[in-house]
């Protein structure tokens, strides 16, 4: 079986591509809101690209002590989210995040807190970042909510990653029809 010069060039181009998919933190592209704001701890602090976890460094978002406190990221369009990484507060109260839920979907019912659940956070060590697998869940909104209790919700960074795959039409079969 012969392979044409065009087919060889095509294959060389394919094999020169990086073997791993492009990974994008889509959280930085979105807009955020939360159920309330404690002091200057605005919701944007959680997507500023800074994992600083000492509250006084000014890079954490925090709600007031509310029933069912929530934080929401609006990605402005629907994405397939593979992972969500959360950085917890270091200087105080790391147990406050225990029991929080990560929810992903396209609905704003109950402020987005009724969307399908990706994960329940059992605990995150003080100052640590933990990644939760969401396996390509689709949604425009990513919510973090502490359901069923009155609590402060503090998030020092939220990152949401999607893997961009190669386009379907990257492998034009007509180039190989005489080989196949």
From TrEMBL:
Record InterPro entries: BG_Antigen-Binding_Lectin, FTP1, Galactose-bd-like_sf
Transmembrane spans: none
Keyword list, A-Z: Calcium, Disulfide bond, Lectin, Metal-binding, Secreted, Signal
The organism's place on the tree of life at top rank: Eukaryota
GO biological process, alphabetically ordered: regulation of cellular defense response; regulation of complement activation, lectin pathway
One function term, GO molecular function aspect: fucose binding
Record family assignment: Belongs to the fucolectin family.
Annotated protein name in UniProt: Fucolectin tachylectin-4 pentraxin-1 domain-containing protein
Naturally occurring in which organism (per UniProt): Maylandia zebra (zebra mbuna)
């Amino acid at each position: 079986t012969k392979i044409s010069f065009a087919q060889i060039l095509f294959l060389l181009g394919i094999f020169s591509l990086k073997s791993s998919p492009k990974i994008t933190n889509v959280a930085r592209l979105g807009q955020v809101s939360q159920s309330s704001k404690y002091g200057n701890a605005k919701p944007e602090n959680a997507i500023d690209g800074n994992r600083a976890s000492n509250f006084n460094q000014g890079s954490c978002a925090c709600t007031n002590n509310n029933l069912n406190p929530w934080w929401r990221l609006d990605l402005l369009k629907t994405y397939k989210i593979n992972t969500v990484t959360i950085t917890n507060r270091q200087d105080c109260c790391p147990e406050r995040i225990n029991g929080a839920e990560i929810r992903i979907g396209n609905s704003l019912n109950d402020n987005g807190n009724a969307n399908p659940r990706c994960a329940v956070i059992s605990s995150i060590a003080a100052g640590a970042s933990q990644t939760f697998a969401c396996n390509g869940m689709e949604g425009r909104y990513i919510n973090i909510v502490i359901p069923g209790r009155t609590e402060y919700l503090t998030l020092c960074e939220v990152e949401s990653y999607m893997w961009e795959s190669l386009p379907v039409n990257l492998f034009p079969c007509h180039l190989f029809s005489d080989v196949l």
